[in-house]
Predict the 3D structure of the following.
Amino acid sequence: MMMDFRRKWRWIILAAALFVSCGQPGDSASEDENEFKNEAEPAAQKIGIKISSPPDTTVYGRGQAFDKTGLAVDWLYEDGSAGAMAESEWLIAAEPDMTKYIPHKVTVRAAAYAADKNYEDSFWIAVMDSDRVLQSVTASGPANKTQYVGFELDKTGLVITGHFSDGSTQNLTSYAAVLGYDKRRRGEQQITARVNGKTAVFTVTTRIGDAASVTINKPFRYQGPDDHQNLEYKEAWIKGEAFSVKDFNLQALVKPGGVGSVTLTYPGGINDGDLEPVMAAYRPEQTGKQTLTVTLDGRTFDLELFVLDVEPAVWFDYGYMRHAGDGTGKGPGAGKYYARPNETLVIAPVRYLVGYNADHTPAAGTTYAWTVSGDAASRGYTMSNDGELLHITPKSAGTYTVSVKIAGKNYLTGETIEKTASTELVCYTGALPAGTFASPLRNFACGQFSEGGNGLGWSLGSAGGYEVWTVEHQPSYKISGNAFSSWHEAGVVWMQEDRNGNGLPDEMWYEVRGGDDDDPAQKGSITRRYAITYIKGSESEAVINQYNQLIRPVYWADVKGRAGRIPGGFPDRYWGVTGNRVTYTGTLLRDNGNIATGSYSGLAPMPGYVDALGDTFQVDKAMRADGSPVTLSAVKFIKVQTAVLRYGGSFGDVSTEIYSADFLGVQTNFPLP
């Protein structure tokens, strides 16, 4: 969340100033994008009532009493929708005289609108002058087997015939309940005709009428307690990934020409079997923006998607962002691990798109082959390979080359691929040359916009975004965000010593153990050595928002092959890296499947994380990559990293905020990235 302006009134004024100067990613979409947002609207007005089902019994023999059991009535709303009425909300105007063997029209009225003819509806019953018993019903028709979305069922030509115990038949169409027709969906529908519990089924096909207006939307729909906004529209694919039109989960807004409109959403909506894409237009190896077409009831619509240029890779993580064109040497393969003799390090690689199934779950059979340069006896090291973790204890000074070859499944093809990465381990006894370090490092993921300082706080952006500070060593550090009761944007804390004395955070980062590590229900949803790549859209996709900012779309792809687009885009001036892509590594919390949609409802309080619940972080809770505790005697650097990938609706990207920390006293207003 970019700014919690609901927590304190003073933040409203500060946030408003930032919104004018910087823009809010959650609100910075183009007008077309905003059209698809599900904003809060007033409740639709009631305009009438409708009998949705007549009573179970509508054909009576001699002497039977009228029975309203099964009678159901709906409210009708101005937007074309309907909703069930409580039995207390309607009444029967006058009960039929069951001694008269004639058809009876029974009128139902809304109790609150008893004098308004718009709020009444009727059904028919028959009272026969014989003791014959209805044994079955059959249906024929209607004349129009093609119906139209948004309109009531056209029953012209529909005949419901009753078959009685004496061998006679009778047209019972007026007394039949016609159930199961949904004017708000298209495709084949099976409709049930029911009289006195006897049923017959007939079939119609619903299509969009020629006169109806149709808009293809990218739906944002509220989806219960787990998803604040469930983005059902997939528009980003990884290079080589197969495309299916059903991945779009499209929504069509149909205005049939009558009152209100009808929204069709897959499943059971517009992707019901005859929505055909022009597949020749899709090229899975062609990266960038592509335009496809689909045909819906004879109409052609353009659909846009973005193919991301990412490749399987393996690297060692030194806590830096990495991106094309970075001249600082902080890209993949840069950096070293430092240790003293007889000190054990736990080293682990990041694997990107390697070792995952097509459903993005870890694939069985992933293997790790480790090598260390030199001879163990002559160079003096010991190593233990625990799968993806390497425990290594150098015994004498020197530089060791550590390599790993990972073999795992390529989730796109199912084939096994191999990737190799190397790093250096420096075992030293004296101090290394001192260096310089500009404090702090600003490495925000897309979504970051606040300038920080002067009480405004720092917003670290989407998953992986981080900031690093130099600190004085102390037993614990206090770091506060702006979380409130139902909104937590968890960030993990990392600590590092300056063992080599060069003033750079270029050594091993140690994560501070958080609450999810000790919660059996959440521990399995932690993804460590997570990596996510953000790719900025092209200038041709850019728009100018209401703050006169140039907004580009931002796409993402992660280690498991999931991909998406951050709704609302990102102000171009705040893209704080060289080139059009950047990759972050770190820890991802609550990686429970919803991540692929990029949605968020506010997590329950999460102790042990910044901007979640706790605000005090103990040095003695620092841990190695395998979760074992590590003793840090002289912490020099603190890093806070956004650890959740979600989209927070009108709040924008879920983004860890830092509003205060006990090591910020010497800081001033930091420059933008």
Q: What stands out?
A: The chain has a mean pLDDT of 77. The first strand starts at residue 46 and ends at 53.
